[in-house]
Predict the structure of Odorant binding protein.
Amino acid sequence: MAPAALAPSPAPLLPLLLLPLLLARTALPAAARKLSCFQHDIAPEVTNIPDGDEFELHAQVCMQEANVTEEEVHAAFEQDPNHVPQILKCLWGCMYRKIGLLVDGEVSEEVPAGVLEDRLHEYEALRSNCGEKVAAAPDECEKGSVLRDCAVEVTSTVTPPPS
């Protein structure tokens, strides 16, 4: 994806929703460093993505909650890409909760801080298309997986409202 300086408008909400993927594919200190570039270059409109230290803290807490090690997370990505291991689902669920997309097991009714006004339509589409699916999932791990999958589908098809 082109850096923000080359893009005509801010990036969509999708990078925020794929944040746990960034966590799972990099070592924590490297992930914290990469996040600054990720946030600045790809998702400048999202200000609630934690900075390096806060991201690392969220990642460590979520890994503890999921009872997994960094090595186990890396190993999970070596498996069949069509099968999402439970540990990744749990990390996604936890990270979405930490950044305010999941509140009390549902897609947040409140627009998370940092979503720019010209991107509200994306969040509304996410909430209206994914909310019931996420709420129906039995636990935070499945909710994280459902939200991620639904978000990828929804944000790839959403068009801005007419000006």
